[in-house]
Amino acid sequence: MSEENEGIVGLSDEHKENPSIKDFTDVNALAQAHIDTKAMVGKMIRIPGEDASTDDVKAFKAKLLAGDMGVIPTPDLNNPEEAAAYFLKMGAPEKDDGYTKIEGMPDARFAELSKMAHAAGISDKQFSQVAKAMVEGDNATNTAIVGERDTGIASLKTEWGEAYNQKFARAQRLVEATKAPTGLLTAIADGAIDAESLKWLDSLAEQFGGEGSNLIDLGNVTDDTKGELEHQRDELTRRLQSDERMPHNERQRLIAKNVDLNTRILAIAG
User: Fold this and answer.
1) Percent helix, strand, coil in the chain (nearest 5)?
2) ∠ CA 26-31-34 to the nearest 5 degrees?
3) Which of 11, 99, 104, 194 would staple 15 via disulfide (CB 3.0–4.6 Å)?
């Protein structure tokens, strides 16, 4: 028997040795503990059992939601009002124009994406993460495209030599005279056309504006001088010698071009 609770009169030996009360030294302390326990139990929310009535379950849910405990009811997503309230609580804006603007995303695309996100109940934070990732992906793709285009144009400038500017201008006159699609007009006007498209336009210009053709007056590209041809030949020779990974077909094409340049140089030299 514990000596500490000897002063609590009337307790049986069994109760005196009970771990929950054996350390009490007087009846007042034990009474206060009982009062505190009753108060605490009264504030507890009891989980309804399997045999609980519908009203008991509703009352249980109401108590959970009444306190500021961050509890959110599971909505019926087939109920528009419940779903909207749930998404709003999870961080979705009230309207589709409430999403944070994403730097680098065009306004039209942002507006379209905002409508889709709001209809799906996406929060502003989630929207920002997805939209920023899309912008970064687009930027990476555009950088790769521009890099590939610039490499192709640099190669074409080497191939055409000093005639490049004249050929480019003639190709521009061709797309304007034939009322080409806006995208092509804009690309060549902005200098954003790729090498393959420019070579194709040059080929068309040769056919439409060449000798014996009166379809379109595009003007002629000035005959290459001996110096221009030698410059093109030297550049092609440098590429052939320096680029060991050049595809076989491209190497054969440049070799044939080099032979042609040498033939024309000899013809000019007489």
Assistant:
1) 65, 0, 35
2) 130
3) 11
Confidence at 147, pLDDT banded by 50, 70, 90 = very high
The residues, any chain, with a CB within 8 Å of residue 188's CB and separated by 6 or more, are: 168, 171, 172, 175, 198, 201
Q: How many residues can be counted in the chain? A: 270
For the segment 32-47, what is each residue's pLDDT rounded down to a tens digit?
887 877 777 666 666 7
- In angstroms, the first-to-last Cα distance of the chain is 130
The SS3 call for residue 148 is helix
Token pair 């009535």: residue: 53
**Inter-residue contact 118 to 99 (CB < 8 Å):** yes
pLDDT of residue 111: 94
Residue pair 197/151 in contact by the 8 Å Cβ criterion: no
Of 228, 212, 220, which Cα lies nearest the Cα of 170? 220
Query: What was the pLDDT predicted at 216?
Result: 55
